Amino acid sequence: MSAAWTDPHPADALLAQAADRFGTPAYVYFAEAIEARLADLATHLGPWFDLSYAMKCNPNPALLAWLAPRVPFLDVSSGGEFARACAAGWGADRISFTGPAKREAEIAAALSAGLGELVIESLREARIADALARGLGRVQDVLIRLAPARVPKGFGDQMAGRPSPFGIDAEDAGQVIPQILALPALRVTGLHIYSGTQCLRPEAIVENWRLFIDLFDRVAADHGLRPGRLVFGSGLGIPYHPGDVGLDLAQVAAGIGPDLEALRRHPRLGQARLVLELGRHLVGQAGYFVTRVVSTKTSRGARIALCDGGLNAHLAATGQFGMVLRRNYVIHRVGGGAGLERVDLTGPLCTSIDRLAGGVDLPPLAEGDLIAIHASGAYGYTASPRDFISHPHPRELWVQDGRIADVTPPGA
Ligand SMILES: Cc1ncc(COP(=O)(O)O)c(C=O)c1O
Predict the structure, then answer these.
(1) Spatial separation of the C-alpha atoms in residues 50 and 45, rounded to whole Å
(2) pLDDT for position 323
(3) Among residues 278, 302, 334, which one ends one of the domains?
(4) Which of 4, 206, 286, 291 could form a disulfide bond with 33, CB atoms 3.0-4.6 angstroms apart?
């Protein structure tokens, strides 16, 4: 993908229409792009995996409702997400509940509503769930989340392979798992690993999934388990920055395919349904963040375009959401334009960290122009401090069959 756009982008007519009708800043999600991503995942990884959508990356109610008939499972990470998912039409039995610091009250609410699987991340959680399930007079299905001892290089965020709040360390599994298995109101139906996100290197993903298989194998053998479900936290990334190359799922499939075929014949693990848990790879590239230029200036030789949405509306694009080295997202001027000018894009906040881009080459910008930031469909709207300095919240807009709908949650 080119770093500099002078031609109009194929999405521009709809992005401009969306901004003119509903205002800016706005997140604009394209249903057809998610559909295409689902098809790509089905082609390359569908022979082995069912999908589970991790709604933390984008919990928009319209998106959740659209996904409900298209994706078999959903992963939530709080009682609030669980309630949103049920309200959007997801049956509780298709939902898993992951998360490192679950409160007793949210576990209780999910269990009493018929949660499919609780993902156990500690012995404390297992004991709480066991007591709650006993109180409800039933047995709760649970998955045990394991934290592998190693994560290959190449993941944007690493959640295991070092001290980590997530899951049960592989080194401790031998001591902790028997205590979970002894709890009478829990049924351990499977194992779960999510150890790294945002990886664009097929060979690192393949290596990571092989580590998962080895750990699943070892834990199942040590504890006499025959898991019905094995959840692979995907780690599948998306290109955010100029020069990033999108992940080639065909290469991932070619690398891991033989291991997954062997897994089907495995004496203990062969019956397990394999689930790929993922967020950004499914929806991230289907979304654009659109912001309007409020004014421009030249300051000590630098061109600056000041926009109506910045860090408050799109934290991740400013590099404040877990980026080690701040890099610009892929950005274009809606409608293109002749020539290029190097410009900094800032937001409306009174802080110098409110910078959407530094030194990006765009057609010369003027007041009223629209900027589109790519790869904004995940970790955007709800991952941003929208109340900071009390600017209007962004809109969330849904584009399907060429029609644009305002799907901003009520009260936002
Ligand atoms: C347990 C778990 N599942 C799923 C995800 C989704 O990750 P991604 O959006 O990178 O696919 C995360 C991300 O942090 C996670 O912690």
Answers:
(1) 8
(2) 67
(3) 278
(4) 286
Element containing residue 36 per DSSP (H, E):
helix 31-45
Q: Looking at the structure, tell me whether residues 293 and 357 fall in a common domain.
A: yes
CA distances from 274 to 293, 300, 386 (A): 47, 57, 37
Cα-to-centroid distance, 54 and ligand 1 (Å): 6
Number of continuous H segments (helices) and E segments (strands) in the chain: 10, 20
Contact 305, 334 (CB under 8 A): no
Q: Which atom of ligand 1 is nearest to the CA of 280?
A: 9
Q: Look up the pTM and report it.
A: 0.97
**If you measure from the C-alpha of residue 199 to the centroid of ligand 1, how many angstroms do you get, rounded to a whole number?**
12
- Ligand 1 center from residue 12 Cα (angstroms): 30
- Exposed, middle or buried by CB within 10 Å (0-12, 13-18, 19+), for 175? exposed
* Cα–Cα distances in angstroms (integers) from residue 170 to residues 42, 180, 211, in the given order: 31, 15, 11
The verdict on residue 170 lying in a domain is: yes
Distance 98 CA to ligand 1 centre (A): 10
Domain that holds residue 330: 12-27+285-406
pLDDT under 70: residue ranges of the chain: 1-4, 323-324
**Ligand 1 atom with the shortest distance to the CA of 159:** 16
Going by alpha carbons, the residue nearest to atom 1 of ligand 1 is: 194
d(Cα 56, Cα 126) in Å, to the nearest integer? 23
Q: What angle (nearest 5°) sits at the alpha carbon of residue 339, between those of residues 333 and 344?
A: 50
Which pLDDT score is estimated for 211? 98
Pairwise CA distance, residues 344 & 188, whole Å:
53
Residue 1's pLDDT is 40
CA distance 167 to 127: 15
pLDDT of residue 325: 76
Looking at the fold, whether 81 and 228 belong to one and the same domain comes out as yes
